[in-house]
Amino acid sequence: MSRQRQRGSCTVMVAVRNMCHLKCRNFVGVLIVLVCFITHYVDARVAPQFTQKEASEEDEVAVRNLEIDSSKSSFTAQPGGTRKLSFLVPSPALVLPYHNGVILSGAPEIPVYLIWYGAFTAAQKATIVDFFSSFSTPGSAPTLSPSVASWWKITSGYKDSAGLAVSPTVKLGGQQELDYVRGKQLKDTDIQSLVLNSLSEFPANYNALYLVLTADDVSVGDFCRNECGSHWATTPSANTEGQQLPFAWVGNPASQCPGLCAWPFAKPEYGPKGEPLVAPNMDVGIDGMIITIGQMLASVATNPFDTGFYDGDASAPLEASTACTGIYGAGAYPGYPGDLLVDPITGASYNANGVNGRQYLLPALWDPVTLKCVSP
């Protein structure tokens, strides 16, 4: 604004000078210089004050607007009756709405039927089997705290329309081994076929989880592109005894995408390349699988048929565990898993104890009681 005013003033003075330059050239020349100097000086003093006044008026309007809706702002009282704006609208607490459908509740336990697809070593299988044995330890000494069992207790806050909570424990219901019967490149439909075929050995139970685990040399659908595991439900058929059966798949990321599906035990695929943590069972792929298995268990238990607890689109829902992705301990933030326990001998990081001296890293779960992500 001030530049335009200066330019206009000097144009007027040039016209005056041309009209009388024969008679008073010297006088007018001095006058022109003097007037332009005065104009420039006035603009330099007045324009900032004018701008400051406009800004001040805008600030006053903004503050008045904020004061009108005091329920969405917070002010701190100041001496002399003034108020200081301390923060604007706080971020609302995360909520996973209940859609009035079925959750895995009412039964004393959730059976898990494992389907091992491809080559797994005996040590790898033992790590995962011990994980499922850690949800309860009947007839044995109590597991150290925090434990796998205490982690699962977070799901007790999820209740169905009848007020029944998610089943209080998980158990291994059965195992089946398959040796690449459908090759090493599977589609999502292949996973369902494996589950349906397993019903020749496993019972059909809508309150169970049928879990397909694929070896590190098997690719499945969008594995390592958009997902580390996924869960679905079968359609009712004679094979399922007319029931929908929840099933899930988890892949071993050791050789395909450890930076995506085994973080923080591998350098992240994206973001700061911090040093990876030591895996508690000394197997990056298997320890990464345990994290995803935990996610699938919590998601299936609280939203088995896309009518339970979730936020967003049912085809890509935010669920009990995926609502807390990347959080494993207090103080977590993107790129940092949070404060974890560290084994003094191995240096491994973990947040839950299991049977047989096992240690695991489990994902935080959204707690419907506190409306927060809670780690073991």
UniProtKB/TrEMBL annotation:
This is Uncharacterized protein. It comes from Riccia sorocarpa. Keywords: Secreted, Signal. Belongs to the EXORDIUM family. InterPro entries: EXORDIUM-like. It is found in: Secreted. GO terms for cellular component: extracellular region.
